[in-house]
């Protein structure tokens, strides 16, 4: 089931506990290198936990990356031209790329954070503001 985490200490305890469970499962299989990687991947997906993502600003302008998810998850970062921004976000979060204009911020891209996940495809092929 899904657990509600109310503070950083609870999240840290929950993550440590989950990692111990995964480690015990990995040690109990015959080929921990191959099977363990699959167990870890499945455990992360089943938990609905965060995923590692990257955004590459391949434009010649500064952009503002905003990531919004459930349970008041919010992350915002100014990303300079050619800069890479690595971050973790819930898999159901949305990513917005805002560009500065004379009128203020202008929304350039709105996408699912899964499109920027590092495990799905090589980062260089899927990134950049449209």
Mean pLDDT, nearest integer?
Answer: 76
Strand residue percentage: 25-35%
Helix proportion: 25-40%
- Decide which structural class fits the backbone: alpha+beta
Quantity of strands, as a count: 6
Distance between the termini: 38 Å
| Biggest sheet layout | 4 strands, antiparallel
Strands ordered across the widest β-sheet: 3-2-5-6
Secondary-structure element order, N to C = HHEEEEEEH
- Unreliable residue stretches: 41-46, 120-130
Estimated radius of gyration:
17 Å
Principal-axes shape call? elongated
Q: DSSP helix count?
A: 3
Which characteristics define this entry?
disordered C terminus, alpha+beta, 130 residues, four-stranded antiparallel β-sheet, two-stranded antiparallel sheet, 33% strand
Summary of the model, kept short:
This protein is of the alpha+beta class. Helix content is 29%, strand content 33%. A hairpin with a 2-residue loop joins strand 5 (94-101) and strand 6 (104-112).
Question: Secondary-structure map with pairings?
Answer:
Elements: H1 8-27, H2 34-47, E1 50-56, E2 63-68, E3 74-79, E4 84-90, E5 94-101, E6 104-112, H3 123-126
Antiparallel strand pairs: 1-4, 2-3, 2-5, 5-6
